Amino acid sequence: MIGRSRGTVQAENADAAVDAIVQGPHGPIPVRRYTPPAGTAPLEAALVGTAPIVWVHGGAFVKGDLDLPETHEVALALAGAGFTVITVDYRLTAVPGLSRFGRATRGTHYPVPVDDVVAVVRAVQAEAGDGVILGGASAGACLSAGAVLRLGSDAAAALRGVFFAYGIFHASLPERSREVRSRLRGRRKFTHTPLLLNAVNRVYAGSRSALADPHAFPGGHPLLGFPPALLIDAESDSMRASGEQFARELDEARVSVEYHVLPGTAHAFLNRPGEAGFAAGIRLIVDWARRL
């Protein structure tokens, strides 16, 4: 169950953004609950009370929190569309030699962040009683996909659907197509190389055996039992290679999957609410979730 409130956050597009705690296997997990605003438009009002959304931010497994735009602004937008949203402040992976980086605790690696996500999904499901929609961005997409497999045979009952934005799902980045490589621009042309992305994955995994664990990196492993899935990738993004491959793997596993590449976007477009890609991504998520 979700514990008592730690306070409220002002939110224009939600009645309240309430901070709370979920008890997990590694200790308390801060969460924030957003409820649809009073006076929601009739179309959205009819949806209030449908499956809540658990939303998991990205940040290369080592950074991010409940106030990150990719966390807070996405939750506000989804609450404004009529959904209750719970965001997750999962434990961050520690970077070797940079113990003061972010809020990570030394020694935190897989499976701790996945365990946190699973604990929140189960707590929300216990309250909702009618299924949960789970979503994640970038590293949060990887954690969310791993949580689906960790839930195992309970996943179909606990999850109405899952959605992923510009996620990485494979321990080793699949080969990027010539078209993807040709579209890379700016600093991420150098920071999102296969070499560096694979290094980030190794830091998160914490061990060689974890790199092969399907609950750490579901890509390339059996995906039977996955609920309906939505994947949205950025056009100019190395991680698109993983998203494209994962969408194919879901399809081959006979999972109902919808896949989109947003033209003119770069990685982390949901962290930039002023850009057109943010609004386009939210529209895709809302339209898909309403059809579940």
Strand segment tally: 9
Which architecture would the CATH scheme give at its second level? 3-Layer(aba) Sandwich
Helix content: 25-40%
The CATH H-level superfamily is Alpha/Beta hydrolase fold, catalytic domain
Structure, explained:
The chain has 292 residues and is α/β, with parallel strands linked by helices. The protein has a single domain (7-290), classed as 3-Layer(aba) Sandwich (Rossmann fold), CATH 3.40.50. The protein contains 11 helices and 9 strands. The protein has a 9-stranded mixed sheet, sandwiched between helices. Helix 10 links the parallel strand 8 and strand 9. The two termini are 25 Å apart. Residues 41-46 have low confidence and may be disordered.
